[in-house]
Amino acid sequence: MSLNHHLYADDTQLFLSFHPPEFHSNITHLQNALQQISSWMTANLLTLNSSKTEFLRIGLKQQLSKIHDFSLTTTHSARNLGFIFDEHLTFSDQISALSKSCYYHIREVRCICHTLFIHHSFTLSLQAQNLPFQQILSTVDFFFSYWTASR
Predict the structure, then answer these.
(1) What is the pLDDT of residue 111?
(2) How large is the angle between the packed helices 131-150 and 92-112, nearest 10 degrees?
(3) Can you say how many angstroms the Cα of residue 83 is from the centroid of all Cα atoms in its chain?
(4) Regarding beta strands 83-86 and 77-80, do their DSSP bridges make them parallel or antiparallel, or are they unpaired?
(5) DSSP H/E element including 83
(6) What is residue 25's predicted lDDT score, i.e. its pLDDT?
(7) Buried b / exposed e across 8-41, counting CB within 10 Å, b at 16+?
(8) Which of 67, 58, 53 is nearest to 85 (CA)?
(9) Is pLDDT at 106 greater than 70 in this prediction?
(10) CA dihedral 10, 78, 87, 23 (to 10 degrees)
């Protein structure tokens, strides 16, 4: 059994691939690895934040339905480097979050539309160079460039 991992400045991710019949032995392996990591962190005056520890099972609905373990608390989605993964890789949570963000920025642009000059090529420029406006415009400009490229 190999336990893959990604280490970031303040985040550690462990990855374990298995078939449903091997679930319990692999979870035991994962729990042992987490205990070893926690012990190492304690020995080095660090703390593993168990409230931020998440367990996400990813697979087909048929595969996940074969796994029945009520002792393990799982989440239905988790964020990885700003991207939201769900248990069936449908990306529905990511799409919802992106849609909310786009609608938010569009509403913000409506509030400042009197200060904007919109060219027919969907490039935006501001009469006043202000940081919050630049952030909104960069998001909207990205949206419009993606939208025009996909048409």
Answers:
(1) 76
(2) 120
(3) 3
(4) antiparallel
(5) strand 83-86
(6) 86
(7) eeeeeeeeeebeeeebeeebebbeeebeeeeeee
(8) 58
(9) yes
(10) 40
CA distances to 71, 75, 99 from 12, in Å: 23, 17, 28
Q: What angle do CA 17, 19, 24 make, to 5 degrees?
A: 90
Q: Which long-range contacts (CB under 8 A, 24 or more apart) does 19-25 make?
A: 20/63, 20/66, 20/67, 21/66, 23/67, 23/69, 24/69, 25/1
Please write the tens of the pLDDT for every residue from 3-43. 888 888 778 888 888 888 888 888 888 888 888 988 998 99
Distance CA 119, CA 125 (A): 8
Number of Cβ within 10 Å of residue 136's Cβ equals: 21
Exposed, middle or buried: residue 137 (CB in 10 Å: 0-12, 13-18, 19+)?
buried
Bridge partner list, 125: 117
**Which structure tokens are listed for 46?**
């660090």
- Look up residue 3 and give its two tokens: 């336990």
